[in-house]
Q: What sequence folds into this?
């Protein structure tokens, strides 16, 4: 009996020593990677909490959906995700714009809207509308915008402020609605840059083909995904337990909570973005129009017409309020003559081909041809589909449409600067 108890105590001491040893290593590892020791951290610190409502996006009564206020792209980045950022964007550190929050309306910006620069008499406001590529223009090259306007366009005594009104999946007529809304509530704007085209083509057709809805509604993937999330009674796994573990002073418990947190984030993302998520028999609390046409050729004509009309509406608004307007058709690799390196090709194209490529090849030529109508009404329109044709640089980093900062720099220098000089000299 004594021998049995002695061995039991021995095993217990080994277990206790191992637990203390691994707890110590865990505290050191967390400090090295996260910058704090859980043991010395207040247990009520909330920044790592996750809740059922913490989807990346929220339903918006005005725009269909937008980002959750306060959300940052940098939230919860681990080493693997950081390395992916380095690889895709061709950088060696997480870019500053990853730390920019979503503001009160869910747009990535360091300030809420409507914004007024009370510290400066001379402020020039540039509103940028469109989808995720337009958002990149709004947040990735702000310093380059400032340099362009101050050095080349004669605004050297002005503060240049970017009003980001763009978000992933946005398309016409959302841009026209957004501008109408913010101008009506008093947001000052001096120049509108509307960078669009791809989402109108790809998402417009996907709304019809996947969701049996009108091409013009907000992105069905996000809209139905978010609605399904709210219908779900409990989308998260052990939500209360996860948050308690994340606030534990124990490194081991904290790390286990972090594992649950990552699983929950994946689960939230699945609820938010699942394609084809219309649940049969479910009554959704929104009014959705059914498509009048279901053939790509017929739908493409309607999409182009809506794209043209949306731009003309913005033109009318801009003239009424004394705002300059520039409309640009965004570049896309599927109709580009660019010579792609093997490295860029591996990112810019996939097998099987990206699902939006067919709609782009069908609709973009019609957009380019119809742009003459925009010009005839005085719209400062520019076709960017050839902007990268002569570049040897690695620009595209995914098979959809997104490109690195150097792509925006090329657009500013080669296309926007000459046109803006003309706009502001007239």
A:
């Amino acid at each position: 009996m004594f021998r049995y108890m002695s061995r039991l105590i021995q095993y217990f001491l080994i277990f206790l020593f191992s637990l203390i040893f691994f707890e110590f290593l865990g505290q050191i590892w967390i400090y090295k990677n996260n910058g704090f020791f859980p043991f010395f951290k207040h247990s009520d610190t909330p920044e790592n909490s996750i809740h059922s409502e913490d989807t990346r996006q929220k339903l918006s009564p005005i725009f269909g959906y937008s980002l959750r206020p306060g959300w940052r792209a940098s939230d919860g980045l681990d080493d693997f995700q950081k390395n992916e950022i380095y690889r895709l964007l061709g950088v060696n550190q997480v870019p500053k714009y990853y730390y920019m929050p979503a503001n009160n309306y869910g747009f990535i910006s360091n300030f809420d809207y409507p914004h007024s620069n009370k510290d400066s008499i001379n402020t020039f406001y540039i509103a940028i509308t469109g989808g995720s590529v337009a958002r990149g223009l709004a947040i990735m090259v702000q310093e380059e915008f400032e340099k362009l306007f101050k050095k080349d366009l004669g605004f050297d005594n002005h503060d240049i402020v970017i009003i980001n009104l763009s978000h992933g999946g946005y398309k016409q007529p959302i841009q026209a609605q957004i501008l109408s809304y913010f101008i009506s509530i008093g947001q000052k704007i001096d120049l509108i840059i509307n960078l669009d085209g791809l989402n109108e083509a790809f998402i417009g057709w996907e709304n019809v083909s996947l969701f049996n809805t009108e091409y013009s509604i907000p992105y069905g993937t996000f809209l139905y995904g978010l609605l399904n999330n709210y219908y779900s009674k409990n989308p998260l796994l052990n939500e209360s337990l996860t948050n308690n573990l994340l606030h534990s002073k124990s490194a081991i418990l904290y790390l286990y909570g972090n594992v649950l947190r990552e699983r929950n984030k994946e689960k939230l993302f699945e609820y938010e973005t699942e394609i084809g998520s219309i649940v049969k028999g479910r009554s959704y609390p929104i009014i959705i129009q059914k498509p009048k046409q279901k053939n790509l050729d017929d739908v493409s004509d309607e999409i182009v017409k809506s794209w043209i009309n949306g731009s003309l509406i913005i033109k009318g608004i801009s003239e009424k309020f004394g705002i300059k307007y520039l409309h640009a058709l965004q570049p896309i690799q599927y109709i580009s003559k660019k010579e792609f390196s093997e490295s860029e090709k591996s990112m810019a194209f996939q097998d099987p081909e990206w699902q939006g490529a067919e709609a782009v090849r069908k609709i973009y030529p019609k957009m380019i041809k119809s742009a003459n109508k925009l010009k005839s009404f005085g719209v400062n329109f520019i076709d960017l589909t050839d902007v990268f044709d002569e570049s040897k640089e690695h620009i595209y980093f995914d098979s959809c449409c997104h490109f690195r900062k150097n792509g925006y720099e090329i657009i500013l220098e080669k296309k926007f600067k000459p046109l803006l000089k003309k706009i502001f000299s007239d």
Notes: The chain is about 50% helix and 10% strand.
